[in-house]
Amino acid sequence: MLLADSLKRWMYRGGRPQGLARLMNRFSAVQFRAGLLVPSNWATLEVRGRRTGRMVSCPLVVARYEGRDYLVSMLGTDANWVANVRAAGGDASLSHGRRENIHLSEVAVQDRPPILRRYLEKAPGARPHIPVDRHAPLEAFEAIAGDYPVFLVTRPAP
Q: Which domain of life does this protein belong to (predicted)?
């Protein structure tokens, strides 16, 4: 397991996906968007790029906590999708078999710890990037909550 964790950290060194990770993310974004052979909480976020204005896709795990859906940045505050969501005012779309427009609102730091713990339960690929064990007490998550943005997913009323 340590070798796999080291490889995952290497693929995202510097807090950004490197060559192999970028390639794998492109494939995963297509797969998650289609909802093919993946859990129902794996989806593709699409948000307008802050520099190019083009739609940018990113495969993510949706964490459900207390009946609400959240997106978490496993790479912290410098993740490209986080900057794009902030620049877009939270407007984005989420796809898993079907595309839906959503709005993302950043969760206050003090409210993040239980959501971060739930996220690590559901997103095994994120575990090497977040320096707290998923079974740790909430106090451990409080110490790192400011470093990992969390967004509440809001769907418009039909």
A: Bacteria
Express each pLDDT in 64-101 by its tens digit: 999 999 999 999 998 999 999 999 999 999 998 889 99
d(CA 75, CA 56): 17
Per-residue pLDDT of 21-61, as tens digits, reads 667 766 666 666 776 667 889 899 999 999 999 999 999 99
Query: 47 near 85, Cβ under 8 Å?
Result: yes
Residues 6 or more apart whose Cβ sits within 8 Å of residue 154: 102, 103, 104, 105
The Cα 23–Cα 30 span in angstroms is 11
Cβ atoms within 10 Å, residue 111: 11
Q: Provide the 3-class DSSP secondary structure of residue 152.
A: strand
